[in-house]
Amino acid sequence: MIVHFIGAGPGDPDLITVRGLKLIQSAPVCLYAGSLVPEAIVAAAPEGARVIDTAPLTLDEIMAEIVAAHERGEDVARVHSGDPSLYGAIAEQIRRLKALGIPYDVTPGVPAFAAAAAALGQELTVPEIAQTVILTRTAMKSSAMPEGEDLATLGRSGATLAIHLSVRNLREIERQLIPLYGADCPAVVAYRVGWPDQSFIRGTLSDIREKVREAKITRTALIFVGKALQPDEDFRDSALYDGAHVHVLRPKRKTG
Fold it and tell me: Distance between CA atoms of 84 and 67, rounded to whole angstroms?
């Protein structure tokens, strides 16, 4: 028996990995976060499987289902949205599994920031504009941010920021980042990426909050901030494919 933590991707059933889908198709028990994982994904569970939406359950109740499956010798597909390594709340589950001696593995999924960038049709790292992407969140009613991980500190890097779980905290994001990025810095709010009703709101740090308020978006959104979101057309090409750039797979300069 093994517990398979599976990243289901951001919402589009086509974005789950082949491995993740096969695990769901073979697991007699499937636990999924119904508020974030579409039913179309867990519909792949075998006939007669025990399929449970864990959204209304506590950690103790979720673990009770896993322990019961363990006692029956049945594998569990524990399906999370996006990629389990990012705000997946798997650490506390893994801690309990280790204490109980229940084996587990993790299958990665497409994270929301990558799916959003794909839907936007753009790169988050542009030569000489931004070569770093920081994945973070802000503290509201959830656990506090560790020391040194506040936006004011992270923003000094000038990196492209992908800010999770914070669409209701745009006033504070604006307050902390405008002094660092400028009021005209591009900002994008990606709503329900990968779902049929996905939408994107483009703006700047000075007006994105008002645009989001008008759109009445209050949850399930990812915020991007950074110059790479709208680079000038004259940014330099990457050295990777430059004919003058020599590397082990292209040892000679190309001209013309």
Answer: 21
The conformation of residue 151, written as its DSSP 8-state character, comes to H
Q: pLDDT by residue (tens digit) across 116-175?
A: 999 999 999 998 899 999 999 998 767 788 899 999 999 999 999 999 999 999 999 999
Structural contact between residues 81 and 37, judged by C-beta atoms closer than 8 angstroms: yes
d(CA 198, CA 91): 29
**Helix/strand/coil percentages in the chain, nearest 5:** 35, 20, 45
Q: CB 238: neighbour CB atoms within 10 A? A: 13
Cβ–Cβ under 8 Å, residues 184 and 206: yes
The domain locations on the chain are: 3-107, 112-229
CB burial class (10 A; 0-12, 13-18, 19+) of residue 73?
exposed
| pTM for the whole structure | 0.88
Residue from 174, 173, 168 nearest 218 by CA: 168
Q: Amino acid letter at 204?
A: T
Selecting from 3.40.50.300, 3.30.950.10, 2.40.50.140, 3.65.10.10, what CATH number does the domain 112-229 have?
Answer: 3.30.950.10
Amino acid at 183: A
Comparing CA positions, the residue from 122, 140, 96, 109 lying closest to residue 230 is 122
Q: State how far the Cα of 9 lies from the Cα of 64, in Å rounded to an integer.
A: 26
If we measure between CA atoms, which residue out of 203, 207, 152, 202 comes closest to residue 181? Answer: 152
